[in-house]
Amino acid sequence: MFNWVNLASQTFNGLVLGALLALISSGLTIIYGTLGVLNLAHGAMFMLGGYAGYVTYTYTGSFVLAVLGGSLFVMLVGVLMERVVIRHFYNRPDEDQLLVTFGLAIVFVELVRFSFGSLSFIVPPPSWAAGITSLGFMFYPTYRLVLVGIIAAALLLLFLLLYRTRLGMIVRAGIEDSTMVGALGINVHQVFTVVFGIGAMAAGFAGIVNAPVVSLTPDMGESILVQTFVVIVIGGVGSFPGAVIGGLIAGEIISLTSMINPAYSYVMLFAVMTLVLVLRPHGLLGTASRN
Amino acid sequence: MINQRPFLVEILTALGLIVAPFVLPYLGFAPDTVNRILIWGLFGIGFDILFGFTGLLSFGQSALYGTGGFVAAYLLTRLGYPEVISALFIGMAAAAVVGYLVGLVALRRTGIYFAMITVAIAEMFYFVEFNPLSEWTGGENGLPGVPSPVLNLGFASFNFSSGWSLYVFLAFWYFVGIVVALRIIRSPVGAILRAIRDNPLRASAVGHDIHAYKLTAFVIAAAYAGFAGGLLGVMQAFMPPDAFMFQTSAQLIMQTAIGGTGMLFGPLLGAAVWLFLQDFLQSALGIGAAWKLVLGLVFVLLVFFLRRGIIGGLVDLAKWGWGRFAPSAASPAPAAAIPVASAAADLPPQPRPVPAAALASRPTVAGATGHILSTEGLTKRYGGIISNNNIDFIVKRGELRGIIGPNGAGKTTFFRMLTCEVAPSAGRIVFEGQDIAGMTVTDVCQRGLTKSYQVNQLFTRLTVRENITIAALAALRGKFRLDLLRQPRRVPGLQERLEHTAELVHLTDRLDIPVSALAYGEKRRLEIGLALTSMPSLLLLDEPLAGMSPSERVETVQLLKSIRQDRTMIIVDHDMEAMFELAERVTVLNEGVVLAEGTPAEIQASDAVQEAYLGGVHA
After folding, report:
1. What's the whole-model pTM score?
2. Looking at the domain assignment, is residue B342 inside a domain?
3. For tag attachment on chain A, is the N or C end more exposed, with fewer CB atoms within 10 Å?
4. B480 domain residue, yes or no
């Protein structure tokens, strides 16, 4: 049943999902671009953010603290992961990096399942953003509108960090040629740790701010990770703008296809990915340099 | 190792499969568990060919496992197709076709892109199976009522329904799977797959169409997955929808990594460990759902410390033990090898007579004299920087041409354009009367133009023999051929080619040494040998003398002189002395244009050249 209100609301849902995917993909893409490691535990970071935020929320009752707690916790996990494990894999083949991050993803998911069980949890939206808002032609959950704003702000922050700071300059230079950055006398290892932490935090932050929209389960990161991959293939690896555009495209594809038939949303997403691969193998905004 | 004794591995596998039912129950394995292990093992054989041998880590095998399983189960249940075994083969064929299509998409990219794309594909198949196709696949209910196989011999009929009787059926197919896989990895295609894993760049440069071979590996893995998926339905009398879950791919990868990659039996052992631990942790230790956490940790630790898995670890341990406790048997080999190397380096090298006909360049175009290669207006721009500008260059047949020029003169770019590694921005490259600009490296190599690299591009995990064989296979079989079951010794001319190349580059005594154990000078000679094996009518040598010690240098100059018979060669090098000794004509590039061309004497006398280049040396 087609109607304009439905279309508008699905477009909004697509925007919410797209913004979320954009943020998570940015985290993944800057990690890969700088360190050359594809973190298959990135979806688990998203999940951990949600759970850490949930725990903070149950103790403090404050949504803002929950967001803060969730993000910082995941950043810490990211930093530890880089220091303890990933660091030893920079000089090993791609497959080893994939295998070890994949193994860590399983460990994180099972650890959460072990501690919290498989039941789902819900973090309510903050009281000032609860309920629904009238947009004139339709009603829309207030928190989702706020969420778009929150994520847009986070993306802006990430953009400023990448394009307006010294660290960002190093990261972007590292995406072009990390050996050269090392040769210039920059402590690459320290930068790597920071980048991994920030990239993981982007996913963790997304996990907690999204918690009021979807309920938390231990394996929620898996489907998000898959969607993130499609975003990156579409947008181009190592490209921040590519991640944002790819995220929005993927979000809209999933939402708009769901309006017609939810079962086909993945098929559409995959079809678009294939099309991009055929027409622009390096992604919409990617370059050949990394391959 | 796998190649040495024919049929040994096959016989041991058969014995193992026969003995297993009498031994495993005492170790606490239920027949049902053993049957599961066999199915995972068979599924894993294909995956190991893809990952362990070809180096492609796919996270999408569940899609193919599920496809094969559901096609077979659908035939046997909904359509009432009576014949179990042929249904399994139809399922396998369906999975292979799907694998071909999936491979076409996924193999457009390599490395992490390939991994990401396969993850996405697997997830899509799962959703498609659950929703749009649920009418056929039973959605979340799966397909119950898959019949068990019956073998009717006329006088007696066997029903392989469950437990150990089903084991016989599964063990038979596992054995067939292993025999076929061994044939494949011992075939020329198998050698090429390993070459792709080690050095895809060189594999395509010696003339193999690596994309087609990767697709082949993907389809083989798909066929194994599809057949194993069908067996899963048969074993459970029910085709479960979770065959399509990403979890299936994940478990396969982890079992393979635990057991060991690149040895075909890794997935079987990994599955045994996995299922045994799962049982043990759940029931004996009573830790319930935490078993996956423990297995996840075990997996991470294995990747960290024992990347080659349990079998790989045992092999290393055995080698270590052998070297430690049987020194008399092990040490003579390296001891004998070293003098050969040093002798080659110290003694004045003696050009060995080589039968010229055996390794002569390929027959040239009938009656063709004059030039073999020419470029017209060859230009390469990188953004605003012009690296090569409007170069006209002619090489006559049989000539030995040197190219020199100061750093940044555009020599490397020029060379890379000639071998089609980079496409020119403008101009033509005519080789044997045909414009080759825009062709692939593989195609020009097949036409008889190849290059030895400035930085060694060898298959480092393989032996000298395997390295040369891989290059020879491209010359003898063309860029793509599906001789999956052929034995390499049945490839006509291979042995000859191998021996002659080895003799030319003085590596006859080193054939079974892994490349990683060669001395630098030897690697350098092998690098040239790989190019020579392709029997090029035009051979390009990119800084063949770079990084050599004085004695190695003398020896290599000698080598280059000995191979130049019947061959056209172009050499780029910084070593002036060697260049003026070797080359008949020398072309001088400077700032992307041809500065001068002539005999060594003319070049040495040229004022322009002295000013641009030699000035600092000879002034």
Report:
1. 0.87
2. no
3. N
4. yes
Instruction: List residues of A whose CB lies inside 8 A of any B CB.
Output: 32, 38, 85, 88, 92, 94-96, 98-100, 102-104, 106-107, 110-111, 113-114, 222-223, 225-226, 229-230, 232-233, 237, 262-267, 269-270, 273-274, 277-278, 281, 291
From B286, B378, B291, B287, select the one nearest B589 (Cα to Cα): B378
> Which residues span the domain enclosing B253?
34-318
Phi, psi of B137 (to 5 degrees): -95, -5
- Which token pair is A48? 């951990």
Instruction: For residue B335, give Cα distances in angstroms to B30, B327, B331, B503.
Output: 51, 12, 6, 21
Tell me, yes or no, if B151 comes closer than 8 A to chain A by beta carbon: no
Candidates B617, B619, B605, B585; CA nearest to B404 is B585
Indicate if B46 and B164 belong to the same structural domain.
yes
Return the biggest CA–CA distance within chain B. Answer: 99
* CATH number for B480: 3.40.50.300
Residues B156 and B291 in one domain: yes
Residue B11 lies in a domain: no
Inter-chain touch A278–B246, beta carbons under 8 Å: no
Number of domains in chain B: 2
Predicted-complex ipTM score: 0.88
- In this predicted model, what pLDDT tens digit does every residue of A236-277 receive, in sequence order? 888 889 999 999 999 999 999 988 887 788 888 888 988 888
Q: Is A267 in contact with B292 (Cβ distance < 8 A)?
A: no
The answer to whether residue B148 is domain-embedded is yes
pLDDT in tens, A139-170: 888 888 889 999 999 999 998 988 888 888 88
Cα(B257)–Cα(B160) distance, rounded to whole angstroms? 31
